[in-house]
Write a structure and sequence with these properties.
The chain is α/β, with parallel strands linked by helices and 216 residues long. It is built from eight helices and eight strands. Helix 1 runs parallel beside helix 8 and helix 5 packs parallel to helix 6. The protein binds D-xylitol-5-phosphate and zinc ion. The site of zinc ion has 6 residues, from strand 2.
């Protein structure tokens, strides 16, 4: 299984975003996680297409856009055109998930479906056949720096078992409270893509990424 590290830009120093992107390049991370929050699906507003274009101009690392927005169908085209290399949306935020997945694929990029911790993991099973990745939130979305929810490993293990039972090749991404300890809990349960914000951006990012990579 390929293990991937995806630092979350939400924890970057926004006044020095150029320097932060250079650090991500230097650390050789697998993906850059870009959280889009609409102040509706989650309480706060983060950033949009303009900042994504600026980030994309300064890196060749794939950018994974995590849409925490109501009615994600409306936002796919503009983020795909701004350079999203893959797009994740929330099952809770849309009425027709198949349509959202098809729209993402129409731009030639991988699609991921996500659920919040309170949504049963089985609700994503009907879509496994057509997504490249599932994002299991390991905190309630909306803010960085929250603790990893302890019921998460069981949810990850159920999903991994279902993917294997069906003989599919779907990545499991975890997001929220991932640090040097919880990354191992998530890995042991069956996750392979690890989003981490406050833990990787606190201190020396390339060093932190190296430590996390050695642990995996
Ligand atoms: C939370 C976001 C996360 C956040 C993770 O709603 O989706 O990507 O940046 O931050 P940490 O790793 O600090 O929990
Ligand atoms: Zn996220």
């Amino acid at each position: 299984m390929k293990y991937m590290i995806a630092p979350s830009v939400l924890s970057a120093d926004f006044l020095n975003l150029g320097r932060e992107v250079q650090q991500l390049n230097a650390a050789g991370v697998d993906m850059i996680h870009y959280d889009v929050m609409d102040g509706n699906f989650v309480p706060e507003v983060s950033y949009g297409e303009g900042i994504l274009r600026a980030v994309k101009k300064n890196t060749s690392i794939p950018v994974d856009v995590h849409l925490m927005v109501v009615d994600p169908l409306k936002n796919i085209e503009s983020f795909a055109k701004a350079g999203a290399d893959r797009i994740t949306f929330h099952l809770e935020a849309c009425t027709n998930a198949e349509e959202v997945i098809d729209r993402i694929h129409a731009f030639g990029i991988p699609a991921a479906i996500s659920v919040k911790p309170g949504t049963p993991v089985e609700t994503v099973y009907p879509y496994l056949y057509k997504v490249e990745m599932v994002l299991l939130m390991t905190v309630n979305p909306g803010f960085g720096g929250q603790p990893f929810l302890k019921e998460s490993p069981e949810r990850i293990a159920s999903l991994r078992a279902e993917i294997e039972k069906r003989g599919l090749n779907v990545d499991i991404q975890v997001d929220g409270g991932i640090n040097f300890e919880t990354v191992l809990l998530a890995k042991e349960a069956g996750a392979n893509v690890f989003v981490s914000g406050s833990s990787l951006f606190g201190g020396d990012l390339p060093d932190n990424v190296r430590v996390m990579r050695e642990l995996l």
